[in-house]
Design a protein that fits this description.
This protein is mostly helical. The protein contains twelve helices and no strands. The mean pLDDT is 88.
């Protein structure tokens, strides 16, 4: 029953998909992070469905791309985007560590958050509009990989503070078993991406791992550890970088043919 409750909590917390009620007790929190990537699997499935069949409808390419872009935002309710914007404000403040952590908790959006939001969506839209239909399923798998890496970080990286969303899930997790499960998910997803698309898949996985390395380095140096907002920042940046890597490889391949 606790496995089912962990599944429910993961989807209730990280998606807008209706879920039955589950108590956030310690026993039910042990494997929440293991199910976090499966939220990405649902996003990826809908992303793929619209990517392949949306073009058959009488809509222009711009609207088609906008709706493709909005699928992860609608399904998650923008929870990870909130972390991206809060982190943008904190990093752009050039304040001491304690002040940066305070900025992360501030519910108000600063100028740098607004700028980061605009730049993020314009960049995402631009590269998404260049994505070929053949590569849509590869980008879809990235939604799973980014969340598997994010979940692994929750169980392995130090937390910047003892309270907050990241600390709640980190403290409630069975870290040793969760890390093993998440590592298996990471390896399985990465190998599948490379197996199906050897060059573009390798580029996407490499981009994700580089983002993961930078996430660890930046969070420790700038904040003393990770927080829920930093986890959201990583997930959004990781997905964007994977998309960019796929499009660059796709473009290079087209130029060489």
């Amino acid at each position: 029953m606790r496995i089912i409750n962990s599944f429910i909590i993961a989807f209730a917390m990280y998606s807008k998909i209706p879920m039955p009620k589950a108590n956030w007790e310690k026993e039910n929190m042990k494997y929440v992070m293991c199910f976090f990537p499966w939220v990405g699997a649902v996003i990826g499935a809908l992303f793929t469905l619209w990517g392949f069949f949306g073009d058959l409808l009488p809509v222009g390419h711009t609207l088609y791309t906008v709706l493709l872009l909005l699928i992860p935002v609608v399904l998650t309710g923008g929870i990870h985007l909130d972390g991206l914007l809060d982190t943008a404000d904190a990093l752009s403040s050039y304040q001491p560590r304690e002040r940066r952590l305070e900025i992360l908790k501030d519910s108000h959006a600063g100028a740098f958050a607004v700028i980061a939001c605009g730049v993020y969506f314009v960049t995402y839209f631009g590269f998404l509009s260049e994505l070929s239909y053949r590569m849509i399923s590869l980008v879809s798998m990235g939604f799973f990989l980014s969340r598997a890496l994010s979940g692994f970080a929750i169980t392995a990286f130090p937390c910047a503070k003892n309270s907050g969303l990241a600390a709640t899930f980190a403290n409630g997790a069975d870290k040793k078993r969760a890390r093993i499960i998440l590592l298996v998910e990471i390896i399985a997803c990465g190998l599948l991406m490379i197996f199906k698309y050897p060059i573009a898949g390798s580029g996407a996985v490499t981009a994700a791992l580089l983002c993961f390395w930078y996430y660890h380095h930046m969070s420790k140096k700038k904040f003393g550890g990770i927080t829920g907002d930093l986890a959201g920042w990583f997930l959004q940046i990781c997905e964007l970088c994977m998309l960019i890597a796929v499009v660059l490889v796709q473009t290079a391949g087209a130029m060489l043919r």
